[in-house]
Specification:
Strand content: 15-25%
Largest sheet: 4 strands, antiparallel
Helix content: 40-55%
Radius of gyration: 18 Å
CATH class of the largest domain: Alpha Beta
Structural class: alpha+beta
Number of domains: 3
CATH superfamily of the largest domain: YebC, transcriptional regulation domain
Distance between the termini: 17 Å
Strand order of the largest sheet: 3-1-2-9
């Protein structure tokens, strides 16, 4: 979920994760399976797996679950027959949406997504109709009250693209996808604890919505993310 105030998004996701721990473990496990399937079981040689393992640790996923997921992906058993498919959609008020899925049944997945979109006042878009608005970037979100000067200096010393402080004091650092791990290592070395660190899809343009319209979009995103096959949803709305 991308859009509106980033720190609010992170808090919303963490609360949702706490309430749905089992489903969160399942989604992270699928991400680990896919990463190991595509790049092998050695995180030192597989950046995507390293990021998936980080998400697993953030979710407090048990180590046995993590190990099984890596083995499934690298071993090529039934659970590794997942496909990664990205869908695009137009949400209410012209909001662009990218929906990333892992699925072993494309017909089920697309049918479920179309039904959720329809109920939420959204429609499926043709490939490329929305994705051109987004770029793959590294993103770090720091909660309010941390050492802004040290975050800024560390980010700039390691070629971050942008550092932005919100009105609430939270800080967003944006990097190229290629520079993400270098900057993450630098933040870790400085013991700067981020609320979120991810390679994500960030939009080049945004749709400004009032609170009522933004709330409806967020409810639609929640419905999509509740589907077992949906891993991530990205949008280009900003809340006024």
């Amino acid at each position: 979920m991308s859009g509106h105030n980033k720190w609010s998004t992170i808090k919303h996701k963490k609360a949702k994760l706490d309430a749905q721990r089992g489903k969160a473990f399942s989604k992270v496990a699928r991400e680990i399976v896919m990463a190991a399937k595509l790049g092998g079981a050695d995180p030192a040689m597989n950046p995507r797996l390293r990021l998936a393992l980080q998400k697993a640790r953030e979710a407090n996923m048990p180590s046995d679950n993590i190990k099984r997921a890596v083995q499934k992906g690298a071993g090529g058993d039934d659970d590794s027959q997942l496909e990664e498919i990205t869908y695009e959609a137009y949400g209410p008020n012209g909001v662009g949406m990218i929906i990333k899925t892992f699925t072993d049944n494309k017909n089920r997945t697309v049918s479920n997504i179309k039904a959720i979109l329809s109920k939420g006042g959204a429609t499926m878009a043709t490939p490329g109709a929305v994705s051109y608005l987004f770029q793959t970037k590294g993103q770090f979100i720091f909660e309010p009250g941390l050492n802004e000067e040290l975050i800024l200096q560390t980010a700039l010393d390691n070629d971050a693209e942008n550092v932005e402080t919100s009105d609430d004091g939270s800080i967003e650092v944006t990097t190229s996808a290629a520079q993400f791990e270098t900057i993450k290592t630098a933040f870790d070395a400085q013991k700067l604890e981020y609320a979120s660190a991810s390679v994500t899809e960030l939009s080049s343009t945004s749709v400004l919505l009032d609170e009522e319209k933004a709330t409806k979009i967020m409810a639609l995103i929640d419905k999509l993310e509740d589907d077992d096959d949906v891993q991530d949803v990205y949008t280009n709305f900003t809340m006024a």
